[in-house]
Structure formats: structure tokens, C-alpha cells
Amino acid sequence: MKKVLVATEKPFAPVAVEGIKKVLDKAGYETIMLEKYTSVDELLQAAAGADAMIIRSDKASREVIEAAPNLKIVVRAGAGYDNIDLAACNDKGVVAMNTPGQNSNAVAELAFGMALYAARNGFNGTSGSELRGKKLGIHAFGNVGRYVAEIARGFGMEIYAFDPFVSGADMEKAGVKPVDTVEELYKTCKFVSLHIPANDKTKESINHALLSLLPKGGMLINTARKEVIHEGDLLKVMEERPDFRYLSDIAPDCREEIEGKYAGRFVFTAKKMGAQTAEANINAGIAAATQIVNFFEKGDKTFQVNK
Ligand code: 3PG
What we know:
By secondary structure, the protein is α/β, with parallel strands linked by helices. It contains 12 helices and 12 strands. The strands form 2 sheets. A 7-stranded parallel sheet has the order 8-7-6-9-10-11-12, sandwiched between helices. It has a 5-stranded parallel sheet with strand order 2-1-3-4-5, with helices on both faces.
């Protein structure tokens, strides 16, 4: 009987866990749950007997991959797979997958919710500003970016996007104005919503040069990854520009410094929660379980990311 470990330090909604179990039960697989674990050791022990793993932002490090001699597949129930050691997967012949698009709407709604909250000064009773007619820049026009655009259209925003991997025509079809350079996006848009993955090219790429281009009252909304921000530069911009605000679903390492010095100019969620909705959990969790069953039963490797 195949053993599927669901290792989620930040658990799925119970209804999603039920759905995952149902898919795995039907295939005759055993589901092993490891939720809210607090040490890597717990994960290493649980991984030891697993044929497959479903994770969220949990770290599938080389140590974890190597602790699971039977492991054939690890599925990140979500979009970003920067938490999986792909080289270790390749070395051990483990297939790594994500579930693209399944939690994107939830992340987009959070990005927008944070923008709205900040534009109204945290609902603190003072006069804020409206979103209608303002320029929104979408940095990377993937699944989340497209949902952000859809919501922004409803709010009457002027929408721009930069994504070297998406054609201008494709953006225009979605009611979005393409820009040719990332600098143009930051120079044009008061609100910029970040949707780039964290990889060697993007890490620390959101720097002083870019942030300084934002128009007066500029706001950066980060529901992507904290690693893409150059934190030293972020602090410099916070200091130099009292008009600049930083909203992030993934609090920076310099959180305390920002909280101590720049009251009212940041929003940080309690825990990364862009994808923390029942709907997103159901979509991504069930997709992950289904992908595992299809992999074992049919050899289906759609969504493999370590080709
Ligand atoms: C993703 O990459 O899918 C999102 O960042 C969600 O991450 P989470 O599953 O840890 O909430």
C-alpha cells in the first residue's frame, strides 16, 4: 500500500484534508498526516516511510529527500517550489511537482485586500484614498497576476503589467497595458503588486533603484516571497521616502526595525496567508493528491518541475 505523507506546518482547512484523504483512499493509498510540526526531526521521521509527499511551504530539503528512501514524488500544493531542493530530487530520482493556478485567486484577493486596507489607512478613521483611476502595476503576469488584474478592473484601476515571458497581446486581451521594462512599471504605477517567483535571478532584485522610481505615495504589495526583496535597500527607501508603504504577506527579516520606526507605513500578515482559504486548500490539496495518484497509476508527469 502506497503511503502518502501530508506534511503541513501550516495545516490545510479540515475540509481540504477530508478531500485529500478521499482521493487517496479511493486509490487504496494510506494517508499519513503531519501537521503543525515544530522540528525538522519530526518531518524527517515521518518522511522515512513515505512513497509520496504533499507539502505547502514546508522545506523539502536534501536532508528530507534523503531521509525518505521510498520517495518517488513530492508535490508542492501551491505555486512556488523554491522550498524543494530540486537537485536532491534529481539525484534521488524523485519527481517534483507543483499545482499551478489552484490557489491563485486566494493570493490575488489578499493582495487586493491589503492594498485597500492600506489606501484607507488601516481603517483608522482618517481620510484615505480611493483605488478607482489609480495606476496598478502587476509585476509578473502569471496566474495570480491575472486574478489581480480581474479584481482591479472591477475597481476601475488603470492596469499595467511587466512580464518578459508573456506577450503584450495576451496582456491586452486581459485589459492590461504591457510595459517593456520593469523600470517603466515602477515609474508609472503608484501601486505595484509583486508576483515573481524566488529564484537565482529574482532574489534581492527588488532594490533601491527600482523602489525609488515609484511615484509619490508609492506602495509595494508583496504576496510573492520575501527573498525577492533587497531588505537593506527596502529599509533605505523606508527611511528616505516617508510617502512609501510596504505591504507584505511574508514579513521581512527586518520586520522589527520597520515596526519600530515606520508606524502606519506597513502591513504584515500574522503568518503567510495568501493561500490560506478553504477554497484554495481544497483546490491545491486535492490537485496534489490527484497528481500523485495519476503519477503512480498512469505515469502522468504533468506539472513536473524538475525535468
Ligand atoms: C504558493 O506558492 O502557492 C503560495 O505562496 C502559498 O503558500 P502556502 O501553501 O505556504 O500558503
